[in-house]
Amino acid sequence: MTADDTLWDLEERFWTQGADSARHATAKGAVFVLPFPAGILQGDALWREKDVAQRWRSVEMSERYLSRQNDIAVLAYRVSAERGDEPICEALCTSTYLNDDGKWLRLAHQQTPMGDAREG
């Protein structure tokens, strides 16, 4: 598996495997910017927020872009994800990873919602 494949795999697991998996792949002091009402989260607040802690039943990432410079990688993509009875989550996302002694750790994650997928 290439480094690029590893990063995309980590990102997909971030959505599908829940808070414990995400916590192990996230750098200490990481910052997440999530849609309202969650907002900007850092530290322990990341793992108390339901939007981070819940697993998504399915996730599809498209329009994928990856930029890597030395030990920093930035992933940008469009996501369509669903869980439970909630409307499908459609968002543009970025995640920044740091290669810390051979292990990729998420340093930042940001989501920009694209609105309700059911709207015209």
Description:
The radius of gyration is 14 Å and the shape is globular. It has helices at residues 3-16, 18-24, 45-48, 50-53, and strands at residues 26-34, 39-42, 58-69, 72-82, 89-100, 103-113. It has 120 residues and is α+β, with helices and mostly antiparallel strands. The model has no long low-confidence stretch (mean pLDDT 88). Helix 1 (3-16) runs antiparallel to helix 2 (18-24). The longest helix has 14 residues, at 3-16. A hairpin with a 6-residue loop joins strand 4 and strand 5. The protein has a six-stranded mixed sheet with strand order 2-1-6-5-4-3, covered by helices on one side.
Mean pLDDT: 88
Report strand order across the widest sheet: 2-1-6-5-4-3
Secondary-structure-based class equals alpha+beta
Amount of helix: 10-25%
Rg is 14 Å
- Biggest sheet descriptor: 6 strands, mixed
Low-confidence stretches: none
Distance between the termini: 40 Å
Beta content = over 45%
Shape: globular
Number of helices: 4
Task: List the helices and strands in order.
Answer: HHEEHHEEEE
Number of strands: 6
Describe the structure in brief:
The chain is α+β, with helices and mostly antiparallel strands.
Keywords:
single chain, 120 residues, alpha+beta, six-stranded mixed beta sheet, 6 strands, 24% helix, 49% strand, globular
SSE order and pairing:
Layout: H1 3-16, H2 18-24, E1 26-34, E2 39-42, H3 45-48, H4 50-53, E3 58-69, E4 72-82, E5 89-100, E6 103-113
Parallel strand pairs: 1-6
Antiparallel strand pairs: 1-2, 3-4, 4-5, 5-6
Helix pairs in contact: 1-2
